[in-house]
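Notes from the 1:1 (GR / supervisor)

We went over the backlog. Supervisor wanted to see one worked example end to end before approving the batch request, so GR pasted a single chain during the call. The sequence is below; no edits were made to it. Supervisor asked that the structure be written out right there so they could see what the output format looks like.
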Amino acid sequence: MKKLTTALGLTFALASGFFASNFAYAEQQTSTYSSEIVKKWQQIQSKADGQTVYFNAWGGSQEINAYLRWAAKELKSRYNVTLKHVKVADIAETTQRLVAEKTAGKNSDGSVDMVWINGENFRSMKLGNLLYGPFVEQLPNWELVDKRLPVFKDFTESTDGLEAPWGVGQLVFIHDKQTLNNPPQSFAELLSLAKAFPGKVSYPQPPEFHGSSFLKAALIELTDNKPALYQPLDIQKDKILFDNVTAPLWQYLDQLHPVAWQQGKRFPSGTTETIQLLDDRQLLLALTFNPNAANAAIEHGTLTETAQAYAFKQGALSNIHFLAVPWNSSAKEGAQVAINFLLSPEAQTRKADTSIWGDPSVLKEESLENGSHGFSLFQPIAEPHPSWLTAIEQEWQRRYGH
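Structure output shown during the call:
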C-alpha cells in the first residue's frame, strides 16, 4: 500500500481558526450545520480547554500506542486537552471498574473519561447506564462518517448515539505464500490442515478478543441453526438451545486441540504472538481482526514480504469498533473533542496508513486524503448477539481451561 506522507490539515487549525475550518469542511462535504449545533460545539470546545482525558484502551500493540501518542501530542497543542492512554489488557476490566463506581454512587469525577469498546462491553455499559449521551450527532466530524457501514448497530445492539465509530475490523487469517501457498478456505479445511501438519495451527486463548472471535466464526460455519446466534440468549432459560447450537463447535475443537500447537495445552496470548509464531514458522497461520495487519507487519519488518491476509470463503466476521464516554467522567467535553479529532480526515487517514497502524477508516472515501478507506473489504459476516459470547467463553473455559 502506498504510504501516506502528508497531513490533510483541512479540518483542524489552531484555536478559533480550527472551529471555523472544521465546520466549513464538513459543510462542503455534507450538509449545513444549524447555528444551534455550531454554538453548542463552541461551548464544548471552550470547556474542554485544560481538561485531562483518561482514555482506557487496549495497550497490546506498539503501533497503536505510538499512534495514540501522536494523537495526544496534537490534542495538547491544538486544544490544550491532555489525553492519557490508560493501557488495559481487556476493556472488560474497565467495565467492571465502572460498575463498581456506579454501585458506590460515584456519579462524578470518575476514573475513566473515554473508552475504546464494542460488542459485549458496549452492551454491558449501555444496559448498566454507564455511558454518557447521546452525543455522537453533535460531533462536527460525524457528518463525514460513511453511514453505509454498520455504525448504528454494535453486535446487533443499537448504538443510540452513545458511541462514535472509530474503525473497521474483520477477522482474517495471515499466511506465508512461501510455506503455505494454498491456505484453507473453511474451518473444515483448517482442521484437515492441522491433522496433516500437527502442531502448526492454533488460535489465541479465549476470552482474549481474537480467540473469542475465532470461536464465533467457527460456530457460524459449523452450526445448523445460525438464526439463533442473532437472538438474545438467556443461558439459564435457554441452556438446551445453547447446547444444541454449540455442540458442533465443541466436537470440532475436540478434534483440533490434540493436533494443534502445544497439543492444545497452551494457546497464543493474542494476535501479536500468532504473527510472531508465523514469522518463526512455528505456525502456518496467524489471526488478526485488521485486514491491513499483514501489510502493516511487512512495513514494520515483523513479517516477510510473502505474507498475505485472506478470509475464508464464507466471509469475514466483521464489526465496527467505537469510542464512548462514561456517565461520570469529569472531562466529558475533553473526551468529545478527542473523539471528534480522532474522527477527522487527518487522524483517520493517518490511522489507515499501514506504516503507522493500518486500521481502516470509517469516513466517506472522498473525505480521505487518498480517496480510499485504506482497505479492501472482504465479504462481511455479522457478529452474533453479544449474549452468546459470554456463554461460549464460559463453556470453553469449563471444557479446555487449564
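Supervisor's comment: Residues 136 and 161 are 5 Å apart (CA to CA).
Batch request approved.
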